[in-house]
Each structure stands twice: as C-alpha cells, then as structure tokens.
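Following up on my earlier thread - several people asked me to post the actual chain instead of describing it. Fair enough. Here it is, all 294 residues.
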Amino acid sequence: MSTTEHVPVMPKEVLEQLALTEGATVVDGTMGGGGHTRLFAELVGPTGRVIGLDRDPGAVERTAAALADLPNVTAVHANYADAPEVLRELGVESVDGILLDLGLSSDQLADRERGFSFKADGPLDLRFDPTRGEPASKLLARLSAEHLADIIYQFGEERFSRRIARKVVERRRQAPIETASDLADLVRSVVPRSKNHRIDPATRTFQALRIAVNDELQSLELALGRLPSLLAVGGRLAVISFHSLEDRMVKLAFRDAEQLEVITRKPLVATAAEQSVNPRSRSAKLRVAERVAP
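Reply from S.P.:
Thanks for posting it. Predicted structure:
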C-alpha cells in the first residue's frame, strides 16, 4: 500500500490541548498515516522538529515518503515506549509535546495481508510489526481454552469468551484457524448479533487478540512511566485511547505521576460532526497532562 487512507482523530482538540508554538519539538509516538504528524510539522514550522515513531515498518516507510516535503519531520521505526532511547540517539534532550494515538489505523485495516479486518480474507497475523513476535494464528493454535477465554474476556470484554474459546479448540482439531475470515465466521457462529447490528460479533475477539499479540497494555504501562521525564517543564503529554482498559491506565497514571498536572479532568471526546464522518472517532477519549516538576 503506497498511499494512506487514515484520517487523524480529534485533530483540532489535539492541537489546542498540546498548545504547541513555532520552534517547538514534538513526538508523535504513533505516527500511522501521518495525519497528526503533518499538522504538528506545519504548526512548529522550519525551526521546530517533529519526531514520528511507529511499530509498523510499513507505516514508517509510507509516511516518511508522504511527508518528504516537510524537512522538519524525522520518521523512526520504534515502539513509543522506547522514545527515551530514540531521542537520546537523535541528540534531543527534551520535547514540548508528545502524542499517543492508540489502536489501529485505517491503513492497517485496509491491508488484506495483515488480518486486522475480519471482513478481509487475509492471514490472521494482527502484529503491528510483522518482523517481531508471534502472529495471532499461532496463538490460537497453542493456547488452552482457559487461557484464550481469559484473553478474550480481559482484553475484549467479551461475555461469550468461554464459548468462543471452546469453539476455537474444537475447530483447530479439524483444521488450523489461519485467516481472518476463518476466525470471524467461527465467532459469529457462537455469539449472538447485537440488536443494533452496528458492531460485528467478531469485533471484541479481534481486539483482544490484537492487544495480546502486540503486548499493547504492557507497552502503554511502560510508556506512561517513561514519557513524562522527556517533557520540558510546561510540555504536555496527550493520549487518545479507544478501549476502557487503556483509558483507565492513562487516567490513573496521570493522576499519580508527581511530574504531571492533569489538564483534562474528564476525557475529551470527538464532536458529533467528526463522529459522523470518521466512525473510528466514536470511541476515542483524549486525556492530557502537563509537566510541572523539574
């Protein structure tokens, strides 16, 4: 995929809350399609700097090419939790803003070879970085029904988790579950469709496996402990989450960090107008905190 389909979530709110000025240095920890990255680069101008990180090497390559007209952008293939090491390597001592936009990008959903979309018949991979770790198909092949049920319940908040896990174990005795559509059809066969029909029955299971495969909550926990020290006093950390577990982690980390002062007492959400044109924004919650302690 050479172009991006991704639309940045809550761009106006992010810019307002980060309060960046010309000449500032900012980290986009989840660069994705580069929507926020471009906005930052245009705002901070040629005297500023934007450092974009992403775990997905394809996203880094694609977005670096798309932003080639912005010489103040540096794109790096890295986990946002490793931002301290990246900045040290680049000779950057502190930054004025950091954004984490958690979850999937539209580009990843559109890539039929990654398995993120259960509407496509691609391999069931679900890794942000295909060069590391274990694809979801391997996870389904080796875990016990109890372990799978725990993952699907904890990370997907799926109340039919045990029913799904039992069906997975039963099915894999006959043939491996190797594609996204294999798993989606299996889940739909045992989970009733919701009354409003807006959410596919497979959604929560795919979300849970993606979080498990990519160690997303562990990365977020590590980052929330490490990123505040990268901010200059007055710099701000903004996190957009799409899952209640992530939002709770951000809320508690911001509240408990001695270096931070919470700016958003309640999370900001996308406007009705944005939700109507960008469905991904419906579950987005934006929290912001400011560095106050040296």
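The chain has 13 helices and seven strands. That should answer part of your original question.
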